[in-house]
Amino acid sequence: MNNDIFPCLWFDTESKEAAEFYCGVFDGKITADTPVVMNIDLFGQKLMLLNGGPHFKKNASVSFMVICKTEDEVQQYWDKLIQGGIPLMALDSYSWSRKYGWVQDKYGVTWQLFLGDKPESQKIIPTLMFIHQNNGKAMEAMEFYTRTFPDSGIGNILKYGDGGEGHPISEPAENIQHAHFTIDGYSFFCMDNSYDHQFDFNEGISIVIMTDDQVQTDHLWNTLVSEGGRESMCGWLKDRYGMSWQIVPKRLIQLMNDSDQQKAQKVVQAMMKMQKIVIEDLEEAYHS
């Protein structure tokens, strides 16, 4: 499992409470517990929960598909996630799965619980929904992401027109109903959707990429912000589709976690002024 790539969920102040909730639902464990960041391990996968304030709300443009082995497993997660949550698609039998449901939990995170016929090595798979101005661009996005990252590829693709009878009238036949792709060995699903949802990609759910060096950092940063992307602060950016990424050199985490609090604090202050993270400038702050 590539744990150099993982989702980050934005919370106002309740990330610790949410971390405990998800560990309870999925039998996970908390691996980092700080006032700003909580890291949890679910099925060997890392998720980061961030207390960032009230600015961003999570929504279903990025959901999490959980591939379950038994109907009981689907039911067990559903029963816990629905507490204080809202069903987006009822837990039922569908053409694509004998037992499936889509639920928004009490923290605004949406989960698709899916009885799978083949176990994936990655049990939780972020699912990107291409809507509004991005509708019809899922294929292009997969090609862009798989070109950008090493060890990447596009897997199974189901277009709306492939399904025959079950094809919703509103969806163009060539649009993606469901597709699988991997970047650097980490799995994603994606889909196009023509419905006029009241939400879109935002900073509420981002994808963190831990980089080994400045060359990798520069390559990913420059490629992802190209052709209509947007630089933000502290290693955050938006790509041309509005999807948020955090490009974080591993060296930043090492320096921020230094036992010398004063040096670590200098590194944090230097990082706060940066858009793209520049490792050399972090080292300079550290040694200043």
From TrEMBL:
Keyword entries, A-Z: Methyltransferase, Transferase, Ubiquinone
Keyword Transferase (UniProt): yes
One BP term from GO: methylation
PhnB-like domain span: 4-113, 122-248
One MF annotation (Gene Ontology) recorded for this entry: methyltransferase activity
A Pfam family per the record: 3-dmu-9_3-mt
InterPro entries per the UniProt record, alphabetical: Glyas_Bleomycin-R_OHBP_Dase (IPR029068), PhnB-like (IPR028973)
Keyword Heme: no
Matching PANTHER family: PHNB-LIKE DOMAIN-CONTAINING PROTEIN, PROTEIN YJDN-RELATED
Protein name: 3-demethylubiquinone-9 3-methyltransferase
